[in-house]
Amino acid sequence: MRSRPMITPRMTTAITTIMMTTTIITTNIATTIITTTIIPMLMTTSEPAPADAAGAMNADEVSALYRLMTWLSPSFPVGAFSYSSGIEWAVEEGDIVDAASLRGWLAAMLGEGSGFCDAVFLAQAHRAASSRDDAGLRDIAELAAAFVPSRERQLETTTQGRAFIEIARSAWACDGLDELVAACNGAIVYPVAVGLVSAAHRLPVAPAMHAFLHAVVSNWISAGARLVPLGQTDSQRILAALEVDVAATAKRALAASLDDLGSATFRADLASLRHETQYTRLFRS
Question: pTM for the full model?
């Protein structure tokens, strides 16, 4: 019987060499370039191969990204699809008739109306919750609930806020969240809910705000696409065109105080009021 050759520890570092294929896809507006690189990878039995650290996220960053993508995706069940924020009335009255007019309407709502105000409330709620300023958080929650211009918008933002907190608390429980919710001592609107839940999970305020504004704008576009109607390509073009507006609104809101709150979108506020008596409706606001 032939004896097996012995493998020494030194040999284990070079016993097997395999070829690992890495495919890198680079995409811009016009082209997609696929580059395939063959990289020798040395297999050892003593310890796993070190991961490539270039561009890698740490555990906290991975967790933050995962949660924000979940909480502010269209599949998170807060019922956002039921509301149009007055866009339904604007379509019926002829203010919004195509992709260009929808884009202009939403840019105004985002930068000069409820988008900016909600972003300020999110940032202020996040900071108060992070510092455990219960009195400040209660005042912010109360002001935000009183700031909406119509009964339907009140229903929209408080219903989504309540659903967001209930689902986050059930599936993503964390220490201190119940105390922050109790500190609000009343109705919690959607942006305040996102701010305090993000703070309870120690997620940074800037990415939370960008994810929130992206979710809000996406829902507005979805409502407009169903009402005008628009195709999926036009919807994505509007979302792409509003990228700069979202970034600018987030930057302003992060630097703003409660004294900077204000809206200049009277027509959009009027739309949310008139929607209550609209004869036929697909949406609740």
Answer: 0.81
